[in-house]
From TrEMBL:
<feature type="signal peptide">
    <location>
        <begin position="1"/>
        <end position="19"/>
    </location>
</feature>
<dbReference type="Pfam" id="PF00226">
    <property type="entry name" value="DnaJ"/>
</dbReference>
<dbReference type="GO" id="GO:0012505">
    <property type="term" value="C:endomembrane system"/>
</dbReference>
<keyword id="KW-1133">Transmembrane helix</keyword>
<keyword id="KW-0732">Signal</keyword>
<keyword id="KW-0472">Membrane</keyword>
<protein>
    <submittedName>
        <fullName>DnaJ-domain-containing protein</fullName>
    </submittedName>
</protein>
<feature type="transmembrane region" description="Helical">
    <location>
        <begin position="128"/>
        <end position="147"/>
    </location>
</feature>
<dbReference type="InterPro" id="IPR052606">
    <property type="entry name" value="DnaJ_domain_protein"/>
</dbReference>
<keyword id="KW-0812">Transmembrane</keyword>
<feature type="domain" description="J">
    <location>
        <begin position="43"/>
        <end position="108"/>
    </location>
</feature>
<dbReference type="InterPro" id="IPR036869">
    <property type="entry name" value="J_dom_sf"/>
</dbReference>
<dbReference type="InterPro" id="IPR001623">
    <property type="entry name" value="DnaJ_domain"/>
</dbReference>
Length: 197
């Protein structure tokens, strides 16, 4: 019963991670790029200037109109004109494709997920040798510290056990250590007295 909840949670996470396809990741990238270049909350439809219910011919017409406006030849002073023009072509291709439009409409209505799976982030951030070495150094140092602290506590417990066993063997279990020291001093004094006589 205790294992049921973690297994169920793991199954849900695996299903969520496996749900996003390569095309979905491309849409995520494109949504982020459009929002960063055209402004927050800019959608593919609002950028083309068409409603979400627009037909394929209306989308093609809006694409031609918008591509003329942002064409790099018409905007020679805009350094990002080439990127915007290429991005517009990809947006129009997604909206003209029935499958691509269906996938985009799903994310348009439900929102782009914040967690997009480990594959999505790993494909965008691949750590170099230095980052891996730093991570491994920190990890091994932390593990070494943990092991040393556990061993230190275990050794202290073992030493206390040995000391208490030695005290009980030397002075008996009922003697307090201060009384035991007096007894040992008395025994030493008696032995010295015998040697002298």
């Amino acid at each position: 019963m205790k294992l049921l909840l973690p297994c169920l949670l793991l199954a849900v996470l695996v299903a969520c991670v496996a749900a996003w396809t390569k095309e979905d990741h491309e849409i995520f990238d494109l949504v982020s790029a459009v929002e960063s270049s055209e402004g927050k909350r800019t959608t593919f439809y609002s950028w083309l200037g068409v409603p979400p219910t627009a037909s394929t011919s209306e989308i093609a017409k809006a694409y031609r109109k918008k591509s003329i406006q942002i064409h790099p030849d018409k905007n020679p002073n805009d350094k990002k004109a080439h990127e915007r023009f290429a991005r517009l072509g990809v947006v129009a291709a997604i909206l003209r494709s029935p499958e691509g439009r269906e996938r985009y409409d799903f994310f348009y209505k439900n929102g782009v997920p914040r967690w997009r799976g480990t594959g999505y982030y790993y494909s965008r951030f691949r750590p170099g040798l230095g980052a891996v070495l730093v991570f491994l150094t920190i990890l091994t140092s932390g593990l070494q510290y943990l092991v040393q602290s556990v061993n230190y506590k275990r050794d202290l417990g073992r030493i206390e056990s040995i000391v208490s066993q030695a005290r009980s063997a030397a002075w008996g279990t009922k003697l307090v250590p201060s009384e035991g020291r007096k007894k040992v001093r008395t025994l030493i004094a008696i032995r010295r007295a015998r040697r002298e006589t």
